[in-house]
Amino acid sequence: MSRKTLVLAALLLFAPMLQAQGAEKPQTGDGPKPELSFLLTLTLKVSDHGKKLTDQTYTLTALTHGPGPSVRDGDRVPITVSTKGNDTEFQYVDTGTNIDITEVKDFGSFISMNIKVEKSAAVPNPANKDEPIVRDTRYSISPAVPLGKTITVYSCTDVLSGHTVEIQLLAQPLAGAQQ
User: Fold this and answer.
1) pLDDT tens profile 128-176
2) Phi-psi bin for 61: left (phi > 0), alpha (psi -120 to 50), beta?
């Protein structure tokens, strides 16, 4: 075998290895997306024929990967069960707000997520002031919201009370997050 043939064979054999050392692998877009973080401001509004009754605002951070944020905000309210002489028996009922946000996904100028809100409250009973009514409401929504703009993602008027419930959401990318 001639010297030229050996050099040519060596170049053909080692050429791919020499090329790979300095070459950067091109980005295909199929790899995992970077984790992004968002600041979510969720406001629960209740009004009575246009008159504001309550506003509860919760500010949370959410990531596009990993577990979503949760809120457990409540009290245990005593409700009179029976009274015999000077003895009063109470039953305690959990009231408050629970919020779970899952599956936050980034789409550039907007994000989507699943939101579950549960509210429980002891409200006055017009028929018997000593026995409040325990009211439970649950909302499960999957909105897509534009970044930087507050929008109403849920609205409903209660048939019995006439109260309107709104859920508003503002989503903002956190400073330093790559968008």
Assistant:
1) 777 788 888 899 999 999 999 999 999 999 887 888 999 999 999 996 5
2) beta
Strands 133-141 and 87-106: unpaired
Q: Which one, of 152, 151, 156, 150, lies nearest residue 137 by Cα?
A: 156
Q: Any idea how long the chain is?
A: 179
* CB-count burial class (<10 Å; 0-12, 13-18, 19+) for 71: middle
With tokens 């979510």, the residue in question is: 40
What torsion, rounded to 10 degrees, do the Cα atoms 122, 125, 131, 135 define?
-30
Residue 104: which pLDDT band, with cuts at 50, 70 and 90? very high
How many angstroms from the chain centroid is the CA of residue 96?
18
pLDDT bracket for residue 179 (50, 70, 90): very low
Report DSSP state, residue 35.
Answer: P
